[in-house]
Specification:
alpha+beta, three-stranded antiparallel sheet, two-stranded antiparallel sheet
């Protein structure tokens, strides 16, 4: 997957194609860095309407970034920081909620997406079973 990141882009212009490629993952942007395996507080998250040009960064050497399905979540976050000076965190689905992948930065995007997919399917199946029991 290749993303084009322009200074005039909004964060959602990056989030949408990422989520289209990985429907059980999402990428969020923050105003402060985190280390491999660490989480970032929600209070530091940018809204999806926030413009990339408004983020104070001295790096913006390229405008294209490529992610492979086998790249680790932590590698994607590091690449965004190195190439663009953008602090990101990848989340995956857990039922119908989102969890940071900080504890699973070693897993690939494909692996995390599959875990998210199975989580949603298991959640739906459990709701269906509970519903049938109650009826």
């Amino acid at each position: 997957m290749t993303l084009e990141i322009k200074k005039i882009s909004c964060i959602k212009d990056i989030q949408s194609p990422f989520s289209k490629e990985y429907p059980y993952l999402k990428i969020e942007f923050f105003d402060m860095p985190h280390n491999w395996g660490e989480t970032t507080r929600k209070a530091h998250r940018y809204s999806s309407e926030f413009k990339i040009s408004a983020i104070e960064t001295k790096k913006h050497t390229q405008n294209m970034i490529h992610f492979n399905r086998w790249m680790k979540a932590g590698e994607v976050e590091e690449q965004m920081k190195e190439q663009f000076g953008l602090f990101t965190q990848i989340y995956r689905r857990n039922g119908y909620s989102w969890v940071e992948t900080a504890g699973t930065d070693e897993l690939s995007l494909d692996e995390l997406n599959e875990i998210g997919k199975k989580s949603v399917l298991n959640y739906r199946n459990n709701l269906w079973i509970e519903r049938e029991i109650l009826l």
